[in-house]
């Protein structure tokens, strides 16, 4: 039961990182994890782009 060593993959680049070190963005439907701010920004921009298509 060591939460510190739990691993997750970045939502954008799929890099494996410790969950404790991950950034996360709480969306309306789910929580996405990211290895760094750049990946989080990339994901946010993609989401915004999808909305604008409608
Ligand atoms: Zn990443």
UniProtKB/TrEMBL annotation:
One of its GO terms (molecular function) is zinc ion binding. Residues 10-47 form the TRASH domain. InterPro entries: TnpM, TRASH_dom. This is TRASH domain-containing protein. It comes from marine sediment metagenome.
């Amino acid at each position: 039961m060591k939460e510190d060593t739990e691993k997750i993959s970045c939502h954008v680049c799929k890099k494996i990182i410790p969950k404790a070190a991950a950034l996360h963005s709480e969306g309306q439907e789910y929580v996405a994890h990211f290895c760094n701010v750049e990946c989080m920004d990339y994901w946010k921009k993609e989401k915004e782009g999808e909305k604008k298509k409608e």
